[in-house]
What we know:
Oligomer: heterodimer
CATH class of the largest domain in chain A: Mainly Alpha
Largest sheet of chain A: 6 strands, antiparallel
CATH topology of the largest domain in chain A: MetI-like fold
Low-confidence stretches of chain A: none
Number of helices of chain B: 17
Number of strands of chain A: 8
Mean pLDDT of chain B: 90
CATH topology of the largest domain in chain B: D-Maltodextrin-Binding Protein, domain 2
Order of helices and strands of chain A: HHEEEHEEEHHHHHHEEHHHHHHHHHH
Largest interface: A-B, 51 and 48 residues
Amino acid sequence: xxxxxxxRRRFTAGLALAVAAGLGGSWAAMRGEWVNQRDDLALxxxxxxxxxxxxxxxxxxxxxxxxxxxxxxxxAEQPAGTEARVVRxxxxxxxxxxxxxxxxDQAAPRRLARSSPEDKVLYDRGQRxxxxxxxxxxxxxxxxxxxxxxxxxxxxxxxxxxEEDGAVVGxxxxxxxxxxxxxxxxxWPMLAVAGGxxxxxxxLAPRLGGRAWAHGLLAGALFLGGLLAxxxxxxxxxxxxxxxxxxxxxDHAREVRAGTAKLLAARGLAAAxxxxxxxxxxxxxxxxxxxxxxxxxxxxxxAEAEVRKARGDAVGAVVAAALLGLLGLALVGSGLLWRxxxxxVVHRQxxxxxxxxxxxxxxxxxFPFIYGIALSFTSSNIYNTSAPLPELWVGLxxxxxxxxxxxxxxxxxxGALIWNYLNFYWTFLFTVxxxxxxxxxxxxxGLLLALVLNTRGLAFRPVYRVLLILPWAMxxxxxxxxxxxxxxxxxxxxxxxxxxxxxxxxxxxxxPFTSFLTAFATNAWLSFPFMMVVSLGALQSIPADLxxxxxxxxxxxxxxxxxxxxxxxxxxxxxxxxxxxxWTFNMFxxxxxxxxxEPNGATEILITQAYKFAxxxxxxxxxxxxxxxxFGILLVYGNVQNRVTRATEGV
Amino acid sequence: MRKLTxxxxxxxxxxxxxxxxxxARLVVWHAYRGGExxxxxxxxxxxxxxxxxxxxxxxxxxxxxxxxxxxxAAVPRGKGPDVFxxxxxxxxxxxxxxxxxxxxxxxxxxxxxxxxxxxxIEALTYRGSLWGLPLDFKVITLxxxxxxxxxxxRTTAELVKVGQxxxxxxxxxxxxxxxxxxxxxxxxxxxxxxxxxFGPGTRPTLNAPANxxxxxxxxxxxxxxxxxxxxxxxxxxxxxxxxxAAMVFSGPWFLGEIAPGLDYGLAPLPAxxxxxxxxxxxxxxxxxxxxxxxxxxxxxxxxFVKYLTGVESARVLALEGRFTPAVKAVYDDxxxxxxxxxxxxxxxxxxAVPMPNVPEMTMVWSPATTALNKxxxxxxxxxxxxxxxxxxxxxxxxxxxxx
Lengths: 651, 403
């Protein structure tokens, strides 16, 4: 056992790590929350201003002198630093502007200048918003209908579409003055608590004697107590700020509503229908968030729900920080970290040697693997490839869609079964049949040939051997194309041979069974040499005296085969069969090139189906889930196979 | 050893500097090879030699197979070229993914738009705005063996009659060989009957009555028995080259495969007798010249794009690179007008329709091919297209659902 001073030092270090990770982490998370909250408030205030202006512009006719007059009147009511521009896409015109730069020959109305990169940005933004609104209307909200740009000096630029009779004709863009700055929460209380905990532990530790568990318990209790007190305080503060932000937003919305109504009245513009402040507090897709009603008052239930959600996030952060801190404490306190560090130092030579390999595996194997699995939990597809994965997270939806669909077949109008070849279970069933038939054939035929070739005194043995290995030596991609050609209905050699014996030509790729036969024939051709070579090697390593002894004992040829040959072949054959199963299960080339899934995807195996989902239908997330399922199946198979062989070996 | 390290380090530090010094050049990605590449590079050389050219251009040939994926991967991350050339079929996907294609609507006025064949502009228009300028188009037409056939058929009724006359199955001879198991080719029959794959907008319309009619006509041709079964590209090429197929429906890419010495001619696809003499309307692919969204020299890039798609370069591209340019004025050039092949494709493109550029199109291929195979083996076109329509609708909805 360690002595008391060493324990004291070690656990103080552990507590320091825990405090740094836990208290520091929790504080950083809270600060992040606070910044998000202020950002969100600024954004929502901006959205209210922008959407209200959008409505004003619409009611001012969206064009001409009335619009410019209304915008000028609006500008007069705004705080300094706010400016707005209205662009119409048709003719690329700056219709109205209160921007400081748009004066003199740049004053609105004017055509946007082709030579001006700023004007191009404005115009392209308008086109983008129009595309987004149209696309979102066709189905699903996938593109932002409000664009936000952060400008220098804390200013913010919001742009929304200008609509007339349901069509987007331009955009309204507002630059907002920065919101009054607020001081973020200071780190001092956290630092004070952290220091206090460490000092307290340092002075209490000597009373615990040489008991490690007592040290751990005390350090853990102190850490948790400190974190809970601090966390509770921070969460209360966060809630208070959140409520305040909601009130601010509501105040702002009511103010804007009153101001807009006044402007409408003063300029003699349509006051009906009444202005709806609830439709100004919107998200990026211009969907109302539901926090405000049409007069701009808070919807209390909704407000409480928002606060609850924020609290939930904060509690989650504190719990995560606590776990992180405890982990640190345990690692240092138990001496594990120290021992690991020592191992690194002592065996530094060995670690240096394996570092490149570890790095390579990490980058080339583990990263793509983990990325693929992460992808399978998202709705990633051709529309959203640029979005970060967490935004596309859909949980287990892809897996559920694939695995929960049991509609393999249905009854047609005439009562006949209609198979759904796109169904996962059909493809799985076909893949299993494909694998079993191919491996069975490959092993049987390969072994048979090996036995024949192993006959002593066989003339021209090397020649046969080369000939039989030839199918394997040729690139399987070429072989596959040749076989596909041989099954052509009019020009294929198979049908021509059949015609010689008076059989009608067969459309090989028209029914699932015949189509399967073409792929099976190709793969059989390709797969037996491997099994033959493996068996041949193993056969030659069986000592001849075993057979001699058996003959002396009067064993038949069959008895020799089952009692000597097969058991001796097993160590070589079992791994070969496992390999062969995995290869055949994922035999992409043959299926893809020979049958191409014909007819109607009936002869698709899992891996070609996954390929089609990824690269023909561009559903990357779905295809990744498909691939992960394939991996799972093979993993289970490998485990079972391993266990079975190990069990038989034990006998 | 240490010195070497130092040297390498210095070089590594100096390289970005060198690259920056070269930054005042435009990089253009293209996938041309052989004669096309030579003509393309000649145009670029003459652009670089112009006294008014401020930013010179470096062409870079990227293998066609890898081109689209390379653009998707490199351009949004700012690692790509300033300008790239590709067919319009991937354009919608790139636009939806964002940060790939720069919208050029703002640069283009009506006078510039009028320079091109209208349908080529239509092909590069997505959601109402223009995203690239058209360089050339590709379209399928009727290619026939002059030795076997003096006058190509003008209507489908004639086609069937002539085709049957030239067919001798026992000798492996056929009137017409074309990839009627490939939806891209068969679309010419659907479009000719007034059908379309989408419309309005991105709503799939595979099972529209006009499409069913087109497919029924294909089945009638199947029954008439003047086309080889399971037509693969290799089969069509060898039949035509061996004089065993009198006619082929294919595009400019096929001309390079024709055996030297074979006397062939080009004619427009026949008018559809069953549809009141409406022409068969093949899909056209338009190669657009796009500006990469992250490019730092968009103005200069646009200058180049304008030049490249202009009449001066079109003349070189057409006569030396066998391009079929999108700019109209080049066809008034006597040397181009005399060229029988280019004029034939120009004539065909007048009735062609742009292949859809919406990303939803990628959802169509697989179900449409499945339906086509069923129809070719005798299934009811209506049922097959209904199934395909449902599959496309489901896939499109799955994509659109997003998150």
